[in-house]
Every structure is written in structure tokens, then in C-alpha cells.
Amino acid sequence: MKAEHKIRYIEVTADALPLFCPPPNQDLWSAHPRVAIPVEKLGTASCPYCGTTYKLKGELPKGHH
Fold first, then answer.
1. DSSP H helical segments within the chain, as ranges?
2. 48: pLDDT strictly greater than 90
3. Any residues with CB less than 8 A from the CB of 36 and at least 6 apart, and which?
4. CA atoms of 61 and 6, how far apart (whole Å)
5. Contact 37/49 with Cβ under 8 angstroms?
6. Which of 8, 45, 50, 58 keeps 20 to 30 A from 34, CA to CA?
């Protein structure tokens, strides 16, 4: 039997940058390797491991690349 994965959608603000998945509040038993999520480049980005989609809400701070 194949395990079903629930795709998540999370809005983040510039305060969360740099952004990594899994988030710090995720249980360790179900965590995948930590990976940087470049949401600041296009405004949205998905985790290559779990498929969670992150969307940047609001503006980037001045001087942020």
C-alpha cells in the first residue's frame, strides 16, 4: 500500500527568509533532508522532497537579493 502525501501550501513573509524545508516545527520522524527554498526569486517555490508550495506574501525588504 502506497503512503499518501498531503500537499501543503504555506504563505511566508520576508521575515522567514532565508527559507528552508522542512520547517522547524515539523516532527523529526517524518522530516526529509533540509533544503533551501528560493521563494524570493519568483514569489513561489516548491520543495523537491515533499511538494510543499511556499508563496511569498508582501514585499522583500530593501537591499534583499
1. 39-42
2. yes
3. 18, 19, 20
4. 32
5. no
6. 58
